[in-house]
Design goal:
Elements: H1 2-29, E1 35-40, H2 47-50, E2 58-63, H3 79-90, E3 95-101, H4 105-111, H5 122-126, H6 130-137, H7 145-161, H8 165-172, E4 177-183, E5 190-193, E6 199-201
Parallel strand pairs: 1-2, 1-3, 3-4
Antiparallel strand pairs: 4-5, 5-6
Helix pairs in contact: 6-7
The chain binds zinc ion.
Zinc ion is lined by residues 40, 42, 65, 101, 104-106.
Amino acid sequence: MNILLEGYRRFRANGWPERRRVFETLADDGQSPKALVVACIDSRVDPAMIFDAAPGELLTIRNVANLVPPYAPDGAYHGTSAALEFGIRVLEVRHVIVLGHGLCGGVRALLDRAPEQAHEFIPAWMSIAEPARLRTLNRGSAENAHAYCEHEVIKVSLANLMTFPWIAERVGAGKLALDGAWFDIRSGVLMTLQPDGTFAPYD
Ligand SMILES: [Zn+2]
């Protein structure tokens, strides 16, 4: 905790005076972020840092392996779907980006197996990405299997976004855009999903 409080002290000394105006405006006027990012919980992949976004600019959903579950209004505890509902139906963001990344532990759990001590929730959660696992196994090559699967997981999340009727409707009306991106932790390079299904470095 001390290390966090020391960070807070630095924020109050340096970050806060710089951003005070921004926060005051956001407090007075409310937030109206234009984009929503679905990212992984991985501590090395910070959407605000990667997109150099200021407070108020980016609505962020983070979960294991940046997954979007299929639309299922069944009364269960859908944290990710609730956040999507708020961002898209209430704040009316215009852009959703699914941000995957290299060396993803969630994808490793999907392809290999979940760590011994993490069997209660992770396997069931990662089963959302089963189509990505099958596509990875069936592609006839073992090369870069994890990166390949990380890319496929992004596509599964994008496909699942379209199962939400109020997302499909907005995309159809040109009011909402969906995109995929993948961040290489080692090189810091962002790859974006192309219309042909490949990922290419953004320049
Ligand atoms: Zn991850």
